[in-house]
Amino acid sequence: MEFRKVKNLLKKEESTKLDFKRKIDIYTDSGKKELAKDVCAIANSRGGRGYIIIGVEDKTKEIVGIEDMDLNEESIQQVISSRCVPPIPIAFEFVKYGAKGLGVITIFSGAQKPYQIRDNGAFYIRRGSTTDTMKKEEVISYLSESLSFNIEVSPIVNSSINTLNYSTIDRYFASKGIEISEENRIEFMDAAAITYIDKDSGNRMVTLGGLLIFSDVNSIYLPHNMIKVINRLEGRKSGVTVLQGSLLTLLELSENLLETILPSKYPVNSICEAINNAILYRDYSLHGKVIEIIISENSVIVSSPGAMILNNNDKNHSYIKRNMWIYDKLIALDHKKRYLKPYPGFSIMKKGFKNIGRIKFVNSLEENIFKVIFPGIKNISL
User: Fold this and answer.
1) How far apart are CA 244 and CA 253, in angstroms?
2) Where are any strands of DSSP class E within the chain?
3) In Å, what is the CA distance from 367 to each residue of 119, 133, 364?
4) Which of 113, 146, 179 is the last residue of a domain?
5) Fewer CB atoms inside 10 Å of the end CB: C or N, the chain?
6) CA separation (Å) from 106 to 91, 212, 228, 314?
7) Contact partners, residue 296, CB within 8 Å, separation at least 6
8) In the chain, how many domains are there?
């Protein structure tokens, strides 16, 4: 951030989009709650970007500076992403102001309002320079403006469209009967929410879904988009392997790796089906968690971040499906048609182990994780 911009902000009084803090605490639970609450309130308030300037007395506006060099965008983003839903787009940077250093959290104007605190379910908003809970009619008003919480179309701050694979994008539009040229590609990318234009700066960013589907190097911005394979079988490529890339790349890499690790008689297709579901339905707002596969003699466990939420409006007790924007793209791009099968994923998983053993499905709301536990290779007659 430019010195001139910070200087102008310091001349202003605290408001719905500006907060001064002597310091922030990202090390204790109470401090994390307070920071998430303040960011959530500013993000929900009307207007453009908001700012929290750290190192300034809120009453006197005395510049005291900050000394905590452990503060960085990743640590602050982890606090916000783990406690706010949908994820709130922010940026953090140190700014030299005279002899003192200030920290500036920029809170971008996202398209997913209202934002909510995960632990208590509360919606916060700024009223002048104070933080307050949103009234019922305010929440309803925001919901009427944004009828769905579509996390996939949330912009990823500082992301570049240069990381996108244009040939994959063109192939997606071709599957929809749309002919793309270099002249109209950007226009269609914006319209399809692959990219997003920030109203304040005019900068074009990539959305979460755009990176997941159309970028081979999305780990630059989304390090939690990975599959961690922990192999505890002796003599079968034991150790830890980390897989990264676009979602279709993850599908291919995980299938190929499992075929080299597991015996030929083991029903690998059932494990792959669990991975397919994990890639599609995981909660991508959980920045500190990854898809994990643990392979041992006794079991093969596929863990997916984000517990499954029961749809209370469905008499058949189905679960709410996440990431439908991503689902549309995977159907269009996956030539193996892994997401166009005549039977539900759970049925496919069970079928492979029909005469082998029982599969356990563990949906933990407390850990916020979904696990599929398969019998290990010791149950297979090799």
Assistant:
1) 9
2) 18-21, 50-54, 84-85, 90-97, 100-107, 116-117, 124-127, 130-133, 195-197, 204-206, 226-231, 239-244, 291-295, 299-305, 360-364, 369-375
3) 13, 27, 5
4) 146
5) C
6) 5, 24, 32, 40
7) 232, 233, 376
8) 3
Whether residue 216 sits in one domain with residue 123:
no
Can you tell me the distance from the alpha carbon of 13 to that of 105, in angstroms, rounded to the nearest whole number? 17
Quote the CA–CA distance of 279 and 140 in Å, as a whole number: 32
* Domain region containing 166: 161-220
- Say what the pLDDT of residue 313 is: 52
N-to-C CA span, the chain: 62
**Burial (0-12, 13-18, 19+ Cβ within 10 Å), 220:** middle
The residues, any chain, with a CB within 8 Å of residue 12's CB and separated by 6 or more, are 18
The CATH number of the domain holding residue 112 is 3.30.950.30
Contact in structure between 362 and 370 (CB atoms under 8 Å): yes
Give every residue of the chain whose pLDDT is below 70, as ranges: 69, 111, 143-149, 236-237, 310-319, 381-382
CATH no. for residue 264? 3.30.565.60
Residues linked to residue 202 through DSSP beta bridges, in sequence order: none
Question: Which is it for the CA torsion 293, 81, 49, 158, positive or negative?
Answer: negative
Q: Are 263 and 233 in contact (CB under 8 A)?
A: no
Residue 176 lies in a domain: yes
Which residues contact residue 1 at a Cβ distance below 8 angstroms, ignoring those fewer than 6 apart?
93, 95, 104, 106
The reply to whether 270 and 357 lie within a common domain is yes
| pLDDT tens digits for range 9-28 | 999 999 999 999 999 999 99
Cβ contact 248:333 at 8 Å: yes
Does the bond joining 89 to the residue before it have cis omega, within 30 degrees of 0? no
- Looking at the structure, do residues 258 and 212 belong to the same domain, yes or no? no
Asked if residue 88 and residue 194 are part of one domain, the reply reads: no
The pLDDT score that the predictor gives to residue 299 is: 95
Degrees (nearest 5) of the Cα angle 249, 73, 124?
100
In this structure, how many other beta carbons lie within 10 angstroms of the beta carbon of residue 312? 8
